[in-house]
Automatic annotation (TrEMBL):
<feature type="signal peptide">
    <location>
        <begin position="1"/>
        <end position="25"/>
    </location>
</feature>
<dbReference type="InterPro" id="IPR023374">
    <property type="entry name" value="AttH-like_dom_sf"/>
</dbReference>
<protein>
    <submittedName>
        <fullName>Carotenoid 1,2-hydratase</fullName>
    </submittedName>
</protein>
<keyword id="KW-0732">Signal</keyword>
<dbReference type="InterPro" id="IPR010791">
    <property type="entry name" value="AttH_dom"/>
</dbReference>
<feature type="domain" description="AttH">
    <location>
        <begin position="44"/>
        <end position="191"/>
    </location>
</feature>
<dbReference type="Pfam" id="PF17186">
    <property type="entry name" value="Lipocalin_9"/>
</dbReference>
<dbReference type="Pfam" id="PF07143">
    <property type="entry name" value="CrtC"/>
</dbReference>
Amino acid sequence: MRLLHVGAAVLLPALLSACLPAPQAFDPARLPAPADLGAKNFPMEWWYVSGYLPESGLAFHWAQFKVNYRGIPYHAGHVAVTDLRTGQLNFYENEVQQARFGFPPLRVEQGEWRLRQEGEVYTLRAGPLNLTLTPRKGPVVHPPGYSGTPEVGRLYYQSITRMDVAGTVLVSGAGARTATGQAWLDHQWGDQQPGAQARWDWFGLHLSDGSDLMLYRVRNAAGQVVQVAASRVDAAGVAREVPGVTMTPGRTWRSPSRRDYVLTWQVTAPDLALTLEPLRDEQELLSRNTSVAYWEGPVRGTGTLAGQPVTAEGMGELVGGLLTRAEGGRFVPSGR
């Protein structure tokens, strides 16, 4: 998940002794190399692994945030696991401020939670997750190389869009369950402050023809759409922009926190028509360590691609905004 707004109230006094160099400025003319997944020195950065595993009856995501707030470091991590057989959703947050990052090989660690590259595979040990991730495609940079706009901030955007999952997931009340299926890894960094400055509707989808589809609709603080972007990674691992894409909202669900999330979508492009629906509505997460509310859960889709029938499976993420102080939010804008 890709969500964090850090205000002065978030930062612990103890961190003042661990200052970082001033963060770099975003330059859209200098795009990253696809395979360079290592940590950068920017105001905002995260790594994210998500997976809808229908054979295992599970959906999960893990996110690790690395923030440089005016030279002061802040780290936050979380994991969500949905047991699709019972409907139980469990959410775990990590606020340990001991973090380490390395590349190559990739190493992302916060306390006991860690993503590590070991040869051609990645291991993810975080809370209930004990997974091995084997890429089936190489890393890509999504055209045009970043999400967002100068108005709301921009984030460089890399992915490994298809990874085989093996290992186990601890399911509350049921013990360790074998995990089998496919996952998606994202790495983003830049000058955007998600949750307040920008919100979005995102999908990472595995298509039945062997390609993968990324959809991104970015909104400003007033709710106006400022960017709609999509890229398709073909079966050979080549990422190309999907021109002329539209994302038309459908059914809206009001969560227990009284936030509205659009859960059904019509996606169109000159050679694409896709209807997306959630497996279940109740997937809202209120993250205290990032002060953001969002919907994160598994989705399925049907439609056509280049005139041929296609199905889609994957995860969606919809940003609902900042938490209020009563909800445990650490940064509350005026009027909330």
